[in-house]
Design the sequence.
């Protein structure tokens, strides 16, 4: 198994091990090279505003956080752990009622112990995303990967 395949496997296991991610139906669409896409189906149990039928912002936040973590775990430096330090989310509009949400995250910079991400959440509608996020994750790099890649 190549290092890239191992990173992708670790990122998938990272997400699949989170009980909440499984409970809300998060599905990994793609992961690798510091990039991740995760979708979450609409679920009436997760509605935040019953009159409008839109998902609760906290569920969208959790999706973006999880997607950011997957992007970090799949980064070429080869992290073995990742945990959220900071996540800032700007909610731009309500998601379309009954719509699935798609989060996409990119790990764009890594230091020895911190990874930085950008993410968006969309619902298939044109226009601005439902939400945009920036975040920082603490991480531990596998010793073998650290020697190969070297983190800044």
Sequence:
């Amino acid at each position: 198994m190549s290092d890239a395949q191992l990173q992708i496997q670790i990122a998938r296991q990272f997400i699949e091990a989170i009980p909440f991610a499984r409970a809300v139906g998060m599905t990994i669409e793609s992961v690798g090279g510091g990039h991740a896409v995760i979708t979450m189906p609409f679920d009436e149990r997760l509605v935040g505003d019953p009159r409008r039928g839109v998902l609760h912002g906290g569920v969208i936040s959790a999706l973006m956080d999880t997607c950011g973590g997957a992007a970090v775990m799949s980064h070429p430096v080869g992290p073995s752990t990742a945990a959220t330090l900071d996540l800032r989310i700007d909610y731009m509009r309500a998601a379309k009622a009954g719509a699935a949400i798609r989060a996409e995250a990119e790990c764009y910079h890594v230091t020895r112990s911190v990874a930085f991400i950008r993410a968006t959440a969309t619902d298939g509608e044109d226009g601005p995303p439902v939400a945009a996020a920036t975040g920082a994750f603490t991480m531990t790099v596998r010793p073998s990967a650290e020697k190969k890649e070297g983190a800044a």
Remarks:
- Residues 88 and 133 are 5 Å apart (CA to CA).
- Residues 57-73 form the longest helix (17 residues).
- The first strand starts at residue 27 and ends at 32.
- Residues 3-151 form a domain with the Thiol Ester Dehydrase; Chain A fold (CATH 3.10.129.10).
